[in-house]
Specification:
The complex is a heterodimer of chains A (142) and B (130). By secondary structure, chain A is α/β, with parallel strands linked by helices. Chain A is built from 4 helices and 7 strands. Chain A has a 5-stranded parallel β-sheet with strand order 6-3-2-1-7. In chain A, helix 1 links the parallel strand 1 and strand 2. Chain A is globular and about 45 Å long. The relative contact order of chain B is 0.26. Chain B contains 5 helices and 5 strands. Chain B is an alpha/beta fold and 130 residues long. Chain B is 37% helix and 20% strand. The chains are: A alpha/beta (142), B alpha/beta (130). At the A-B interface, helix 1 and strand 7 of A face helix 3 and helix 5 of B.
Chain lengths: 142, 130
């Protein structure tokens, strides 16, 4: 990708904040697309899921009844694209009655540990999420 | 300061595009640099020259084009978002076999990498959306 030549080796902390449900608007799908493209730029990429955004990670999504594209399988690519930080806000899960076991079991292969599959999702408190947001250099809010 | 701007909403339905315009206009007026304005999601609809608002209303699209002409501003429309929503330049028209194109003057169509690059290069990336 020629665009990478223009970034001068700078590595910034990119944080993609996802606040909307996966269907009903296109924000979730296009938010995921930009995060995957961004991962190719060798930046420090983290994903955050807050409010209705936590629905994006629910397992067993089925969009056949609404006729829209079920892009949820694409989340599995995050680990392959070297994204290692996926933060989900605990309070958002709890207020929606979603348990951690209801989320997709996203994993990455740890190259430093014999390519063992490790969980990608960290459930964090709202206070921890505030710190994560505070420490980011570039925030994209979808 | 070097700003990059992200516009995520289309014209007329949402305030975001107007506010982004006023922000860019003010930043340039204060002597700041705006390295790129990137249009994503429905924001790509800010780039169609076929927009025809009533005469007593602002022309959001023309306003961007004029600002680009005055300040050599880089207005970039995301290709993937544009294809979904029917925003087409001459190259895209040819590539996808369409019967017309509608990209307004001063805009160009390019990839999402341009947004990431803008975020890396600018001191601040400012997002306008809902």
């Amino acid at each position: 990708m020629t665009e990478q030549q223009n970034t001068g080796g700078t590595v910034k902390k990119f944080l993609y904040i996802n606040r909307r449900a996966p269907h009903g608007s296109n924000y979730a799908q296009e938010g995921l697309e930009v995060a995957l493209i961004g991962a190719a730029f060798e930046q420090d990429v983290a994903m955050a899921y807050i409010d209705d955004g936590v629905f994006q990670l629910k397992r067993d999504q089925d969009t056949s009844a609404i006729g829209s594209k079920n892009f949820s399988a694409t989340f599995r690519a995050l680990g392959d694209y070297d994204v290692r930080k996926v933060y989900v806000e605990r309070e958002s899960l709890e207020s929606r009655g979603i348990g951690e076991e209801d989320l997709m079991p996203l994993v990455y292969e740890d190259e430093d540990d014999d390519w063992e599959e490790k969980p990608l999702v960290s459930v964090v408190s709202a206070a921890e999420m505030r710190d994560i947001i505070d420490q980011a250099d570039v925030i994209l809010n979808f | 300061m070097k700003f990059a701007v992200l516009v995520n909403e289309g014209p007329y339905t949402h305030q975001a595009s107007d506010t982004a315009y006023h922000f860019v206009h003010a930043a340039l007026g204060q002597g700041h640099e705006v390295t790129r304005v990137f249009f994503y999601h429905d924001g790509v609809n800010n780039g169609t020259r076929l927009t025809t608002p009533p005469q007593d209303d602002r022309n959001v699209v023309e306003r961007w084009s004029e600002l680009a002409g005055e300040h050599d501003l880089d207005l970039v429309v995301c290709v993937a978002a544009a294809q979904r929503r029917g925003i087409v330049d001459a190259d895209e028209q040819k590539r996808n076999g369409k019967d017309g194109n509608n990209l307004a003057e001063g805009f160009r169509i390019s990839g999402l990498g341009q947004l990431i690059e803008a975020g890396i290069q600018a001191d601040r990336l400012v997002s306008f959306g809902d």
